[in-house]
User: Fold this.
Amino acid sequence: MNIELTAQQKALQLEVREYMKTVMTPELLEEIKIPEFKEGGGPEFRKQYARMGTDGWIGLSWSKELGGKELSHIEQYIFTDEVVRSGFAYPFLTTESTTPVIAANASAEVCEEVVGGVKQGKVVIAIGYSEPNAGTDLASLTTKAERDGDDWIINGQKMWTSLANFADYVWLAARTDPDATKKHKGLTMFLVPTNIEGFSLTPVNTLGVRTNATYYSDVRIPDKYRVGDVNAGWKLITGQLNIERLSLFTHGQVDSLYQGVCEWAAQTAAPKGGKLIEQPWVQHNLATVKSGLEVVKLICWKQVWAMDQGPLNMADASVAKVYSSEFFVELYRLLLEVMGQAGTIATNSPGAVLRGKIEFRWRVGAVLTFGGGANEVQRDIIAMAGLWMPRTR
Amino acid sequence: MNFTISEEQQSAQQLAQQILGDFTDVDKLKALEQRQESFDNGLWQALAKAGLLGLDIAEDQGGTGLGFYSLTTLCEEVGRTVAPVPVIPVLVSAAGTLRRFASDTQKDQWLPGIASGATLITAALEEYNNDDPTAPSCSAQKMEGGYSISGTKICVSQASSAARILLSAQTEEGIVVALVDPHASGVTLNAQIVTTGETRHELVMTKVQVPTQDIVAIGSEALAAMDWAHLATRTALAAMAVGLCDKMMRITGQYTSEREQFGRPIATFQAVSHRVADCYIDVECLRLVTQQAASLINESHPAKDAVHIAKIWCGNVTHRVSQASQHCHGGTGVDRDYPLFRYCQWARQIELTSGSSAQLTGELGQAICAEYLSKAG
Assistant:
């Protein structure tokens, strides 16, 4: 039992931290002030993403065959943690979740086009799972794909297709067997190029960031864009959920907010003398945040350590999701409370604390407790897989 | 980074599980309670025989030398079985401190007896409104051949049966750590019944003469010794809480899966199962912060913040899991013929021992303040 990073791991952490400072150029910091480019997609984002590709930083966890470095999960997490901490809108769902699945299941031609493109930092993939009537109960989705000779014809609508406004492909789950006895058995995965005829989108502006509704009207794609076997899509979807979560709830992003608020409160005068950080209620909030943050760090470390040992325990994965999502929401509130009224000042307004980052993260954070598997479903899993309790109804 | 425990440590933990399991069936615990005893000497001797009292005692002194981390896994198992054995005051607070800070003569004098189960050395770290043994209000005066100690310690476990009581007192030149003989002149022991139901003692000392041979450390060494004892004790309490809460939650998971109302097991109501799932999350969080604190102490790395955080979680989780378990059991949970009440009593005891969550959150906040004010210059 030794719960500390090794000297090598610390060196990697520092290397990534320093490198990411060069990615967050002054131009990029300006670009992400534009709401449309906040989550990436602007020209400077494209430039820096491609540079990360050229410099060999994309796909570190991939197999050597794919040009990766086969980093362990621990090392991959250290990379992810630092990239998220830097604030760069690195497309983790593209690089870590979908691309390895595509590489393992797609045709050689598509692999070269898509996996090769991702490797060079030129390709971004959006996720097309949710629909207006298929959220937590994802297997009930109705967007359909029908075989027509060597092609597939896709019709339907997807919801919350984030990044689709600048992505190159949508990683789309579609129903190919409407009569399957179990509804999750009739699904197949496709890559839909976003420049194809019949594909369209409308923006959905949320409490936090812009996302999209995407529409598929007689979209015709060749069979090569099918990934995996027909009606075998479910495993491809669920197989990468744990990895997806690992990039959602990293320690560095919230730790840097905590540190930022501590520094701010140590420099800011309290109304009746002394510094804000000397107020007992401020100290209470900061200590509560620190105690909770420590668990975020340890949960992440234990998860990646466990993934290097073998498959992840189902209950543990759900514990990580529920705890982290609920703590993130709590953390935003506790830190905003320290700032008081100033905590409401938005990013581009004068007087915004920490460039309004926490005000913005709180907005985005509203989706955390239901996104990536609603917490109620996670608690059901914990009760069943962790405590052997009967299924609820 | 490595979350596995060694094979040796694993087998020690399994052995502890087995022995503790054998000795703590409900009838045995009940019989002890009826005799108003809070120490099962038979169990203590069985643990000694298996080498489990010497996990953190060097081989030279009759221990196995597996180390502090291994000792915390014994504390976890004691919590899981609510076994009436004083592992924390004797093995952690007293023996652990002696191992690291006493003279070779003192170690040879006391540690083999502790490991073999022949001798009990306990510790008295708390005073009224003061859980910090590095800043005691008990006072000590240097005199010919040793120190004269006066003052009061509270809730001392095994005070009347121990050969010595390890404690600290304030002198004009810093603190002193001493082994006080409970039978020495000037010592008064007043029985105190605490939440777990056990009898502890208020230890009142009036000019108790402690000979030089029973002085463990003075000045900065004494400060380091009490600092270690404080951190180690808090960490051991958190480890005990891991076992305790894990078991409470499992009892509750099982009970709600069997108990039927409205024609179905109550665990099939999400309102019930989610409350137990929340306990599961809490216990996992507590386990992680406790493992971190214990492994840092084991490696002799700085552990202050990690221990603070572990004890904050310990207080919060013991409270939450205990209340949720009682609630989900309905009336069955409070019935003394059902085992849960013991766990709930221990939970409250551990929560309020060696610093509550509110106090430690306050102290952690002050430490954060000091850290960032000094950075801000």
Observations:
- The mean pLDDT of chain A is 93.
